[in-house]
Every structure is written in C-alpha cells, then in structure tokens.
Known about the structure:
- The complex is a heterodimer.
- The radius of gyration of chain A is 15 Å and the shape is elongated.
- Chain A contains four helices and two strands, in the order H-H-H-E-E-H.
- By secondary structure, chain A is mainly α.
- Chain A has a single domain (about 5-95), classed as Arc Repressor Mutant, subunit A (Orthogonal Bundle).
- In chain A, helix 1 crosses helix 3.
- In chain A, about 65% of the residues lie in helices and about 5% in strands.
- Chain B folds into two domains: about 1-75 and about 225-245, no CATH class; about 80-215, Alpha-Beta Plaits (2-Layer Sandwich).
- Helices cover about 65% and strands about 15% of the residues of chain B.
- Chain B contains ten helices and four strands.
- Chain B is elongated and about 95 Å long.
- Chain B starts with a helix and ends in a 9-residue tail after the last helix.
- The interface of A and B includes residues 44, 47, 48 and 61 of A.
Amino acid sequence: xxxxxxxxxxxxxxxxxxxxxxxxxxxxxxxxxxxxxxxxxxxxxxxxxxxxxxxxxxxxxxxxxxxxxxxxxxxxxxxxxxxxxxxxxxxxxxx
Amino acid sequence: xxxxxxxxxxxxxxxxxxxxxxxxxxxxxxxxxxxxxxxxxxxxxxxxxxxxxxxxxxxxxxxxxxxxxxxxxxxxxxxxxxxxxxxxxxxxxxxxxxxxxxxxxxxxxxxxxxxxxxxxxxxxxxxxxxxxxxxxxxxxxxxxxxxxxxxxxxxxxxxxxxxxxxxxxxxxxxxxxxxxxxxxxxxxxxxxxxxxxxxxxxxxxxxxxxxxxxxxxxxxxxxxxxxxxxxxxxxxxxxxxxxxxxxxxxxxxxxx
Lengths: 95, 256
C-alpha cells in the first residue's frame, strides 16, 4: 500500500494531525517516507474531494481531520485491499 | 539548498501557494529537505501546475524541470577525454588511389585485430574492470568503439582514442600510432619478401610512415556535452508541457 491518498487517510483515521505529524506517523506504521511534495499533493486532492478538512489552528501548523466521506472511502479501499491480502495469503499457503 | 527549495516552491501555482504556502513552508522547515526531496517538490509543482496552472506556467515549469533533470543526469555520466595522433602514411609514387585505399584497409584491419588490441590493452592497463567481468570479445568491441581512425587529406591518418582518464587516453593514442607504424612496416617487409620469392618487380604501396603530431594532454572532456543535454531536457520538457496542458484534468476548484 503506497498510495499517498490512502496513507494520509489512514494516518488521520487515528486522530487530527498536521503535515509533519502525518509524515512521521506514516513513516512508523507503513515504513514509507512521503516527500513534502507528495504529501501536499495528496492533501490538496483529499481536501478538494472533501475527504479531509482543515481545522482552526492558533499557529502556523495546519491540522487536518478526516471527514465522514473520507472514512467511508478509506473503509471501502481497505476492505478491497483486505480481500486481496487474504486471497494472496491463502494461495501462498496452498502453493 | 534553502535557496533552491524556495525557488522550486515558487514553481507551484500562485493560487496553491496562497492556500497552502504558510503551512508548506512550516513543514519544509521541520523536515530539512535533502536532494531526494528536491525532486519530490519538483514533481509536486508539476502535478499542481497541471491541475491548477495556466498554459504558460505549465510550459515554464515543465521546461525548467526537463532542464534540471537532464542537467542532473549529465552530472552522473563519466567524463570522456579524447587524444589524437596524426600519422603520415604516404603512398609510393605511381600507386593508384584504389590500391592505396585497399592497403590502408588491410593495415587498419591488422591494427584493430584481436591480438593487436589485447596487446595494447594489457600494456596500457585499459578496461581492467570490464576485463575482469566480461568476455574478452565484448571488451575488444568496446575498445574498437573508443578508437577512431580517419584519413586526413591525401596521406595522413588521424588516430584518436576516447577514455575516462586524460593521461591514459594520450598514452593509448600514442600506443595505437606506434602499432600502426610497426604494422605498416611489417606489411611492407612481408610484401617485399613475397615479391622477392615470386620474382616480381612491383613497387611497395606505402613508403613513408611517421608521426606528424604527437598527442597533447586533453584538457577538457569531449563527452558528455552537458550544455547540449540540458538544452535537450529543456526542449523535451516544453514538449511534455504542451502535451500535459492539452490533456490536463479539469482544474481543481479554489480552496476555501
């Protein structure tokens, strides 16, 4: 799973985060370091699609939260991925 | 590095920078970007330009990106130095041009044959890494590609060798010229012996061999031509830019 959109949604599913916190979190749970251009490309598209939204913040760091539509999309994508993972593992056991 | 990053961030569309500029700058300060991040930022700028930029901006960003990428690639290519020797190979008076050219063809075949090149390779310690890992015929072919022998005027040959080391290129060009003269002398002696045995009075085809210009140490590499490569990258980037602008997706709506 290396799609930046899914990685950002998965990170925000745990709680609200700003860009740097998302990068750190994704590095820990997926062992993938998203570059700043890739991360903000994903944030731009996610916000445009209404899957995340910015939260009010007193400082320069802008936190984001996942929306209900974002959760729905993430759940659908993960279910599909889960099916692929289960099938792949079962086939590996049979081989 | 900071200046380059600022410059690349400036390639993002103004509308995008107005919305995300402050938080993006903040992130860049937190992560202290490396070289890999430069290309990631460049890719991000291209992506946002395609989504939000004007036709002119898309062209400019693609052109600059193409030039930067080609320039970076050109820096990874090793320098190649060329050294040349001018050798006089005069034909005997009365010998026809066809006979002269045919004798030169035979001479060059002998100079560039397997045994001759392996001898030069071993003496000059060329292609040591390749010789350790590849079949000798492949290395010989590589050496032939690095050698150029051209007829200059009516009676001279320019022998050139391209190598990754300037001093070694000069020594190899010298060795090739020496081999050329030795081989020409051997061929003339063999031909004379053959004629004596056959009892014919035919004249020798080549009569005078000498080095007219010894090679000087190459000061600058002949390859890669980094300016030409960067220019090519610029043109290719502009072409891609036109393509991207024509097929781009619907622009993103303005962020709140």
